[in-house]
Amino acid sequence: MRHFGHIAPEVRERLFHQEPCEFTADSPARLLSAALGATLYSPATRARLADDIVKQAGLGVVSMVLCLEDSIGDEDVVAGEENLVRQFADLTERARAGVALPLLFIRVREPEQISDLVRRLGGSVSLLSGFVFPKFTEERGIPFLQALDGAAASSGRRLFGMPVLETPELMYRETRVDALEGIARAVDKYRDMVLALRLGVTDFCSSYGLRRAPDMTAYDVQIIASVIADVVNMLGRADGTGFTVTGPVWEYFRVPERMFKPMLRSSPFLEGQAVELRERLIEHAMDGLLREISLDQANGLLGKTCIHPSHVIPVHALSVVSHEEFSDAQDILRPERGGGGVLRSAYTNKMNEVKPHRAWAERTMLRAEVFGVANEDVGFVELLAAGIPG
């Protein structure tokens, strides 16, 4: 699989200075954690789940979570588990026929479900990349990680965990640091098995009876922004101790009425002759989503939880490295720059300071590997237009 692999090769050649790399479920964890991109969630009870997965893979989705937790009712868990076993058997036959599939994860409720599902999946476990753990804390999370370790050993399959950070202890100022320190101990002990940490901002908002509007981002809700900042501060460091932290879910896909002006400037769309695309994005609340993706990246997050297929390509388009970013990162990482120093960027519009900007440059080059580098004259509008159907 590869990002933008669903568009024609000649279009990719026009868009990319460096095309996104190919990867598989067996690629190194460092690469996969960056390549998750827009992780699309789907209830595990969907009757045509296998068809949905194949369809979304053909539209550019590279990672999906099949949910047995909040997206289904308590009374539907058993049926959801049974459906997953059937759908994975169906997908196994399709994979043998050469059908491309995304990375697949199952969101469970309890640790016991992990070993039980792995057993019931049988040979179809080869399609599974791991599990998502809800409401993760040190006390609650260790049993999930232990169950994952045991399931991987019994199945002979490398399986990853993705803890979701969403409990009230992380919201409340008086318990936040202790909660984060406990989570750090838990995930560090099982570091090789933790692919990424996911933020459950909807649950954070629930603790205060809040819900952000479609013309506001998570960063406009200050109590939420403070939690994101502290999670990145303690768990997303670039010194080798941190993990990939993914962006929060965007809940909207159509806006009946808006209070504030759209957040998308018109000029990039005029230059790209994509005025209708801008109108469509605004109509479907994508201007707020695009702004939040940009703020995710500015605050150290990579990838995003998605609940609607229309959110996928915007996340991927804004994850592509610009030619200017790539040029700066290359200059900073040149071997002859190992001693440090300051240099003017090749675009002659900024200072590149080698030592302070090195971690940014390394992170940028990893993103360039999985999402590609845009051609010098290509912006996010062209990437959006190429990736969004119709």
Compute the number of strand runs. Answer: 12
Tally of distinct domains = 2
| Sheet having the most strands | 8 strands, parallel, barrel
**Rg:** 21 Å
Q: How is this structure best summarized?
A:
The protein has 390 residues and is of the alpha/beta class.
Q: How would you explain this protein's 3D organization?
A:
Helix content is 47%, strand content 13%. It is an alpha/beta fold and 390 residues long. The protein has two domains: 299 residues, Phosphoenolpyruvate-binding domains (TIM Barrel, Alpha-Beta Barrel), CATH 3.20.20; 70 residues, no CATH class. The protein starts with 8 loop residues before the first helix and ends with a helix.
Describe how the helices and strands are arranged:
Layout: H1 9-15, E1 16-18, H2 29-35, E2 38-43, H3 49-58, E3 63-67, H4 77-96, E4 103-107, H5 112-121, E5 128-133, H6 138-155, E6 160-165, H7 168-171, H8 173-189, E7 197-199, H9 201-206, H10 222-235, E8 245-250, H11 267-271, H12 275-283, H13 286-298, E9 304-306, H14 312-319, H15 323-333, E10 342-344, E11 351-353, H16 354-371, E12 373-374, H17 380-387
Parallel strand pairs: 2-3, 2-9, 3-4, 4-5, 5-6, 6-7, 7-8, 8-9
Antiparallel strand pairs: 1-12, 10-11
